[in-house]
Automatic annotation (TrEMBL):
Pfam families in the cross-refs: TauE (PF01925)
Protein name: Probable membrane transporter protein
Provenance organism: Tissierella pigra
Family: Belongs to the 4-toluene sulfonate uptake permease (TSUP) (TC 2.A.102) family.
This protein's GO CC annotations: plasma membrane
Keywords tagged on the record: Cell membrane, Membrane, Transmembrane, Transmembrane helix
Membrane topology recorded in Swiss-Prot or TrEMBL: Multi-pass membrane protein
InterPro entries, per the entry: TM_pro_TauE-like, TSUP/Inactive_protease-like
Length: 116
């Protein structure tokens, strides 16, 4: 039941384009005690069907700019390859701390950025 709730909340965040991993990864590490790398692996597996549904919805609403997306996809693929190799070699505790620092920086940025 808790895993379904975590998935539900992660799906809502993913559908909004924020990134469900911000909910899913810490939840798996904190509540289930799995290693950071395993939580990130689960997140990647969950991401595919969730992202597919969100992508279809945003496509139908005209929210996609393929010219921008193509460039980001190329960089993202290269970054994912490099990041995956790095993630499996890093100590899980250090990776968990790096992920936490990243989330804090993103949160801090969201608090101080100017309204558009």
């Amino acid at each position: 039941m808790i895993l379904t709730l975590i998935g539900f909340l992660s799906g809502i965040i993913s559908g909004m384009g924020i990134g469900g991993g911000t909910i899913l990864i810490p939840s798996l590490v904190i509540f289930y005690g799995i290693k950071q790398q395993e939580a990130q692996g689960v997140n990647l597996m969950v991401f595919i069907p969730v992202a597919t549904v969100a992508l279809i919805t945003h496509y139908k609403k005209g929210n996609l700019d393929f010219s921008i997306a193509k460039l980001i996809i190329v960089g993202g693929i290269v970054g994912a390859i490099i990041g995956s190799f790095i993630a499996v070699k890093i100590d899980p505790l250090k990776l968990r701390k790096y992920f936490g620092i990243f989330l804090l920086l993103i949160g801090f940025y969201e608090l101080i950025k100017k309204k558009e």
